[in-house]
Specification:
- This protein has 188 residues and is mostly beta strands.
- The chain has helices spanning 3-9, 13-28; strands at 38-51, 54-66, 71-81, 92-112, 115-130, 134-144, 158-162, 169-170, 176-181.
- Strand 1 and strand 2 (54-66) form a beta hairpin.
């Protein structure tokens, strides 16, 4: 039995074959060296406006690490209709994961302790699992302000996601948190 037949019998044929370009890209990308990077974590809601009675809201979370040249990151999302006239649970319009493809930039405006304030920009792939599978290129900007240290980027805390049919940006008031870390914990 050849590899293709084995993968088909295992039910992985099209998934495995379709993953080869991604796997090749991962293998070709050098891993970030310990101590040579910063980290981030975030979970926030973004609004996409109201279109045809749908109150587009994105619950987006993720984490990762980045250097001056590259990023390794990913997370999850739920695209929900938060129309107040709809009952709870609110309808999930789409759900899936996301993965960083390319670091665009990181602009730090300073830090306090081991946290940094700044703006991280990256190109990502949004991987929709529900209602139907699909991969969509997009651009993600994550903003972290540190109010107690007087460090403000001039942008609201949270994320902006562009390149999809709906653009999502931070809610006012902000719902969520973002953290950029300057230190990386190393354990044996």
């Amino acid at each position: 039995m050849n590899r293709r037949d084995f993968l088909k019998k295992a039910g992985l044929g099209s998934v495995a074959l379709g993953s080869l370009p991604v796997l090749g890209e991962i293998l070709a990308t050098p891993a970030l060296a310990d101590g040579d990077h910063k980290t981030f974590h975030f979970a926030a809601l973004g609004g996409g406006g109201t279109i045809g009675g749908v109150v587009h809201t994105l619950v987006l979370a993720g984490d990762g690490k980045f250097s001056d040249a590259q990023v390794e990151a990913g997370g999850v999302f739920n695209h929900v209709n938060l129309n107040p006239s709809l009952p709870i649970p609110k309808p999930v319009l789409a759900s899936g994961t996301w993965k960083a493809k390319r670091l665009v930039s990181f602009q730090s405006i300073g830090g306090s302790g081991e946290t940094l304030a700044g703006i991280l920009k990256m190109d990502i792939d949004v991987v929709r699992l529900i209602p139907s599978p699909g991969v969509f290129p997009a651009h993600l900007q994550i903003v972290c302000n540190i109010p107690f240290a007087g460090l403000f980027t001039g942008h609201p805390e949270g994320f902006t996601l562009t390149g999809l049919p709906v653009t999502f940006s931070p809610l006012n008031p902000t719902i969520g948190i973002t953290i950029f870390g300057a230190a990386v914990e190393e354990r044996d």
